[in-house]
Design a protein that fits this description.
Mean pLDDT of chain A: 80
Largest sheet of chain A: 5 strands, antiparallel
Oligomer: heterodimer
Largest interface: A-B, 33 and 23 residues
Number of helices of chain A: 8
CATH class of the largest domain in chain A: Alpha Beta
Order of helices and strands of chain B: EHEHEHEHEHEEEEHEHHEE
Radius of gyration of chain B: 19 Å
Shape of chain B: elongated
Helix content of chain A: 55-70%
CATH class of the largest domain in chain B: Alpha Beta
Order of helices and strands of chain A: HHEEEEEHHHEHEEHEEHEE
Distance between the termini of chain A: 60 Å
Largest sheet of chain B: 5 strands, parallel
Helix content of chain B: 25-40%
Mean pLDDT of chain B: 86
Number of strands of chain A: 12
Low-confidence stretches of chain B: none
Number of strands of chain B: 12
Strand content of chain A: 15-25%
Number of domains of chain A: 3
Distance between the termini of chain B: 22 Å
Chain lengths: ~475, ~230
């Protein structure tokens, strides 16, 4: 027999198997209960019949004792002709029948004082079918044999019809259960199949494809939602990667080209001075490349969660003050005011070198871009540290040109440099590094409007190590 | 100065040997960790330059082994791995300084010379003197030609480091590492600004400048013109 493929698939699903097992177990229990019930019913009915027969036997015994054999024959004869359900046989020990409506002595009953079941051919009607009967032997003396019985055919037929009905019901139950199981598994299968179809489509390169969510809020929806969120994340990472490789191509190729140009230009020149200049220029370009490369590696390693093991407990206020002190003369030299409103004391667990480097990047950015704003005489940079319940916020604010609201998310990405800063020296990785350091410590970076200028808030949890 | 370069890349090793020779130092080469260890154990070298990735016996294991055997020669570790934890690992293994590839030769030379100087016992020195400039390490007082010079704590430490290595070139990175304990590449000329402030205090009112800028390398304090 060849089963259709769809049926095979439905049958081999987990939900169908669960349905089938449930139905099978239910059937086994129901069958057992029905069987016990039928057996018990029969037993009760039979014992009732036996009790009745016992009573009748006592009456006939009394008849025999008071009136002797002739009275017994009369009594049996009368009862046999009454048309009731009673069955009788009275005969001599030699085998001659004296009275009764049974044509012969049922051999199954002879010698069994507790009685038993036997079959006989009723003489009424033309039916050749044998009936079932229960009978007991009655002791009325050694020369007579008396059997008192009762036809239980009706009773047995009732019981067997009940049984048939029960088993029919079980049959319907089985079919119903299997059909329901099949239907449920079909529904489950369809949902799973839609996930499979989406997965295959995504594997084929259709990265924007998503799994349908029905809105029913069931487990399949939860699964689909989670898978979609996962795909979203992968997509974001991949496009991030694509963007980065594009940018690497640009940001590493540009200085490489310049380096090559510088070397070529030097070759065209003559004279030691020109050669020296050319070579110095070449080394400068190479250093730029190395710097970009190092920053890129560091950001990548931070994003991969490396360097986690170097957490130490340190005074972050002091660390920020020291950095500010390092940069204060630099700002001053460029006509800026660097004000530091930071007290020593707040403790933080984290990688001190990395946090210091993040703060340095923020200060260097502030110095670099505030100068370009043109409003040199008004330039000031404020460094602030807030010890909050949720962590420590390091705030670096300037009053330079700032960053437009729509660009603030973007500049945190690797190599993203806004149009006006493209010409500035720099790797385009400064803020990415700040962001990576924040993430490594379970913190955040927020860019805000300082009206005018930019305010960067680097928030780090005090226990940076419980990531 | 006698230097041992343990480096498996022949081109890099020969470049270093040639450059060190031009700087007036003798350099021997070893191509793997085991040879390097054997040579270093002879104890004739002033400084060892050790690459981290070496055949047979890696750089850090070699240094650890040498330290276990009582060889105290200063070691400069060269490595392509430059993160903070790599540096910590290198110094923990017994290295004295750590330089990330690719590096400027001037940086390497300055560090090697600083290490060689360190091998000479100088911890007992309580005064650094360069010409008329005197730094007293006990009283933290600085004078030039007997005239007191007021310095900020950080300026004092900057001058102390420069004078400790008087006559040698000290790079910006070395200053950032030893005076400020920072290990990063600044994008701005932050060290230059601090040095020029210091220079204004110690040289400005005197005829003979002592703090010199070495083009393409760093700074040096010495008696005599550039």
């Amino acid at each position: 027999m060849v089963l259709p493929e769809r049926l095979v698939r439905a049958v081999s699903t987990t939900s169908f198997r669960v349905a089938a097992i449930t139905v099978a177990l239910y059937l086994a229990f129901a069958g057992l209960i029905v069987g016990v019930l039928l057996w018990q019913t029969n037993r009760v009915l039979t014992s009732q019949v036996l009790a009745t027969l016992d009573g009748e036997a006592q009456q006939l015994k009394a008849e025999a004792q008071s009136g002797g054999a002739p009275a017994l024959v009369r009594a049996v004869d009368t009862r046999s002709r009454s048309g009731g359900p009673g069955l009788y046989y009275l005969g001599e020990a030699s085998g001659t029948k004296l009275a009764g409506n049974l044509s012969r002595l049922p051999p199954e009953i002879v010698g069994r004082p507790t009685g038993g079941v036997f079959r006989y051919a009723p003489d009424f009607g033309s039916s050749a079918r044998e009936h079932l009967a229960v009978a007991i032997p009655v002791n009325v003396g050694p020369e007579l044999q008396l059997i008192v019985g009762r036809d239980v055919n009706e009773q047995r037929r009732f019981a067997s019809e009940m049984g048939t009905l029960y088993f029919l019901a079980l049959g319907f139950l089985t079919i119903g259960g299997l059909v329901a199981g099949f239907a449920i598994s079909r529904v489950a299968l369809r949902r799973i199949e839609s996930i499979n179809v989406a997965a295959r489509s995504i594997m084929d390169g259709n990265m924007s494809r998503r799994i349908a969510v029905t809105g029913s809020g069931d487990e399949y929806d939860a699964l689909a939602t989670n898978l979609n969120a996962m795909l979203e994340r992968i997509d974001a990472l991949m496009s991030g990667l694509r963007e980065v490789s594009d940018n690497i191509a640009h940001d590493l190729k540009t200085p490489l080209t310049r380096l090559r140009n510088a070397a070529e230009a030097a070759l065209r020149e003559t004279g030691e001075e020109a050669y020296r200049d050319g070579l110095e220029h070449t080394i400068e370009k190479a250093d730029e490349l190395i710097k970009t490369f190092n920053s890129l590696l560091l950001v990548a390693r931070l994003e991969a969660g490396a360097l986690e093991g170097n957490a130490e407990r340190f005074d972050v206020g002091r660390a920020v003050r020291d950095v500010a002190e390092l940069y204060e003369p630099v700002a001053e030299e460029r006509g800026m005011q660097l004000s530091v409103n930071v007290d020593a004391g707040p403790q933080l667990t984290g990688n001190r070198q990395l946090i210091v480097q993040a703060v340095v990047n923020l200060i260097e950015n502030a110095i670099k871009y505030s100068v370009k704003s043109g409003a040199v005489d008004a330039s000031s940079i404020a460094i602030d540290l807030q010890n909050r319940a949720d962590g420590i916020a390091i705030v670096v604010a300037d009053n330079g040109p700032g960053i437009a609201a729509e660009d603030r998310e973007r500049v945190l990405k690797r190599f993203v440099r806004l149009e006006k800063s493209r010409t500035e020296p720099g790797t385009g990785l400064g803020l990415s590094l700040v962001q990576a350091v924040a993430r490594l410590h379970g913190g955040t970076v927020r860019l805000e409007d300082n009206a005018p200028g930019l305010r960067v808030v680097l928030t780090l949890p005090k226990r940076g190590d419980d990531r | 100065m006698h230097v041992l370069v343990v480096e498996d890349d022949r081109e890099t090793a020969q470049f270093l040997q040639k450059a060190l020779k031009e700087s007036g130092h003798a350099a021997d080469l070893a191509e793997d960790g085991e040879t390097g260890q054997e040579l270093a154990e002879q104890g004739v070298y002033d400084v060892l330059i050790v690459d981290r990735m070496l055949p047979r016996l890696d750089g850090l294991s070699m240094i650890r082994e040498l330290r276990n055997r009582g060889v105290r020669t200063p070691v400069l570790i060269l490595s392509a791995l430059g993160e903070v934890d790599d540096r910590v690992k290198g110094l923990r293994a017994g290295g004295d300084d750590y330089l990330t590839k690719p590096y400027a030769y001037s940086e390497l030379l300055a560090r090697v010379e600083a290490l060689a100087r360190r091998a000479v016992p100088e911890e007992q020195e309580t005064r650094y003197v360069v010409d008329g400039l005197v730094l007293d390490r006990l009283s933290h007082r600085v004078t030039r030609d007997g005239e007191a010079i007021q310095l900020q704590p950080r300026e004092y430490r900057l001058l102390e480091y420069l004078m400790k290595h008087a006559g040698q070139v000290v790079t910006r990175t070395m200053l950032l590492e030893h005076v400020w304990d920072y290990h990063f590449d600044p994008q701005t000329n932050v060290i230059d600004v601090h040095v020029s402030r210091l220079r204004a205090k110690i040289d400005k009112n005197f005829d003979k400048p002592l703090l010199h800028t070495v083009r393409g390398a760093g700074y040096t304090i010495r008696d005599g013109s550039a």
